[in-house]
Structure prediction request, 118 residues.
Amino acid sequence: MKTKAHKFLSILKMELEEIEEDLKTLLEIYRCHEQKHEITNYVLQENSSLIQAEIAALRSLFKFLDTFSLEEYESLEALAEGVLAKFKELIKKKEYPQALYFLIERRVQKVVKYLAMA
Prediction:
């Protein structure tokens, strides 16, 4: 289990990095829409603020994974549930954008499914 747990965290970190890249891409798309006058500057600023907050929160959660204790989890599923519970708690406590939890939840499920097949 210990090896799978370490793999889980390593792959999850890569997935979180991918979410960050996706958010940066979305930000660029919004900028293009604003330049084409498809959205207003106000909409761009609002969306940019939200995306920047999500990226900052994601980086904070990424750092949290470096300190996450694996020892109390006996299965991969329990570990995934523990990580998600802690992320949910941190997102609420630090008032991070709630949508971030759902993005992370999907990635956690993806990693669990991948490791279950391995």
